[in-house]
Design brief:
Blueprint lengths: L1 E4 L2 E4 L4 E3 L2 E3 L1 H14 L8 E5 L5 H9 L4 E3 L5 H13 L23 E7 L7 H14 E11 L9 H13 L8 H10 L2 E9 L3 E8 L2
Parallel strand pairs: 5-6, 5-7, 7-8
Antiparallel strand pairs: 1-2, 3-4, 8-10, 9-10
Helix pairs in contact: 1-2
The protein binds S-adenosylmethionine.
């Protein structure tokens, strides 16, 4: 289901609503594996900012395991923010959501620095301007030792999974500005903002976790 926001089409995963809290089947599947990778990366009392948090399930899953951290979800979509707020009311570490669209210049200007910027399943299902804004904002907002955590499908040339190539075609049919991003392009983009790929982790269903840190 896609939603119109300020004239732009925003992609939403399939969701079911229960009292404002939204649930997505894909988040139910991947929240555990994502938390497995993220939790060891988080120092004690880490400040986390998540971009495009959707239903808010990833933040809730990590906060359940790591009650010491502060996790701020965000989304440009108001229905998603309501779901994130419903989860924040029930989870000690989860903060009230922010209205952030990272394709807007200056989105990070008024925000405090954070230890880790998390972005799952967003940059393929929005224009490339979103990835560019994310990388630009990361350079602005992350502590010197901070990291960017990206999760989702990526293309890796001839090694690309057939399911990701099919997904790429279906995204482009929905919106020519969307598409599964090439890992090489994402690395080049983040390198231009002073980040190197520290770790690439294979995840279920041909997804990847990517951890970027500042270049030495
Ligand atoms: C496919 S959903 C993924 C939601 C969640 N991260 C997950 O993995 O289940 C994509 C989300 O990205 C958000 N989004 C799209 N464009 C964005 C932008 N420019 N800045 C921030 N979030 C954006 C959408 O509103 C939507 O909630």
């Amino acid at each position: 289901m896609d939603r119109k926001l300020s004239g732009k089409t925003i992609a939403m995963e399939a969701r079911e609503a229960v009292e404002k809290k939204l649930f997505s089947p894909s988040s139910a599947r991947n929240s555990g594996p994502i938390a497995d990778v993220l939790c060891p990366l988080l120092k004690s009392h880490a400040l986390v900012l998540e971009i495009g948090s959707g239903t808010g399930e990833h933040g809730e899953a990590v906060c359940r395991r790591r009650p010491d951290i502060l996790w701020t979800p965000s989304d440009p979509d108001v229905t998603s923010r309501k779901s994130q707020a419903a989860r924040a009311r029930e989870s000690d570490g989860m903060q009230m959501p922010l209205d952030l669209d990272v394709s807007r210049p200056g989105w990070s200007d008024e925000l405090p620095d954070v230890d880790i910027l998390v972005c799952c399943n967003v940059i393929h299902i929005s224009p490339w301007a979103t990835a560019k804004g994310l990388a630009r904002g990361a350079a602005d907002i992350l502590h010197p030792e901070g990291r960017v955590f990206l999760y989702g499908p990526f293309l890796e040339g001839t090694a690309s999974a057939p399911s990701n190539l099919d997904f790429d075609s279906s995204l482009k049919a929905r919106n020519p500005e969307w598409g599964v991003r090439a890992l090489a392009d994402v690395k080049t983009l983040f390198a231009a903002h002073g980040f190197q790929l520290e770790k690439r982790i294979d995840m279920p269903s041909n997804n990847l976790s990517l951890i970027f840190s500042r270049s030495e």
